[in-house]
Amino acid sequence: MIKKIDISLIVPCYNEEDAIPYLYTELVKLRTQMKGIAFEWIFVDDGSSDATKEKLASLSRTDKNVGYISFSRNFGKEAALLAGLEAARGEYVGVIDADLQDPPSLIPQMYEILKSGGWDCVATRRVSRKGEPPLRSLFARLFYRLMSKISDAHIMDGARDFRLMTRQMRDAICSMAEYNRFSKGIFSWVGFKTKWLEYENVERVAGKTKWSFWGLFLYSLEGITAFSTVPLILASVFGFVFCFASIILTTVIIIKTLVWGDPVAGYPSLMSVVLFIGGIQLFTIGILGQYLAKTYLETKKRPVYIIKERS
Ligand code: UDP
Ligand code: MG
Prior knowledge:
alpha/beta, Spore Coat Polysaccharide Biosynthesis Protein SpsA, Chain A, 10 helices, 50% helix, elongated, binds uridine-5'-diphosphate, binds magnesium ion
């Protein structure tokens, strides 16, 4: 008979050869601390170019709690999370980063909360962004605020992917078959009762962050197009405002010409209006293009990830 697993932990790893030993040590401590709980640790190697896979393979040979999945190339953290969630067999399923920015010491508390009933998920948010460039923090805040205004996926400021959820919630997340996966949005969209734990930002234990400012910016656009159609309405709003303005302007010009006989003047003003409207048109067509591109990718129904090797 297959042994029942209490907690499955999913660890997405992309070039984390330096961080994995630290995380593993912490996980072992956790296992000793939470005696009687059956763990399963699923490390997902997201097409790393360093020795991540070899490290994971050797861990899985020596420790029966460790399992790994290795992708054929880098598919991104979202894909790694999905692969892990799909493979998870535990009654409770958790997600944790490889770099120890998510303190594993919170897991016993998360587990207690879920066990006591009343909650479907215990998630975490950073209340400080110590050690992060100020500009990045500012944009992150703006993004969370904008997102909660224009979409039905409310994302907490500072929300991490680090969380523990029930099997039921894991099933709901796996049932979302979209190709453009924005996990923070998905976690919120599926609903269920989520309790938030707060903690101070911790810097990564080893290795480098995989996110550049530009990368984060594109990722936030992805989040917006995946969970909100409000930008599409912008074109109609601009169109309406400009029609209204042009009717007023035309009326003014007609009256001025009829009453005072003023000549209609102004190449420069005409030019600026033409450029302005042209700009707005390109901007809104651009937005339309974004959604079209996403739709195009969704209709191809490509797999979110491809597994090359697993334990
Ligand atoms: N990650 C991944 N695939 C990627 C990028 C990142 O699996 O393409 C993993 C990475 O190994 C880490 C987690 O996602 O475990 C968070 O990445 P990182 O620490 O670089 O992000 P940050 O904490 O700076 O937001
Ligand atoms: Mg990190």
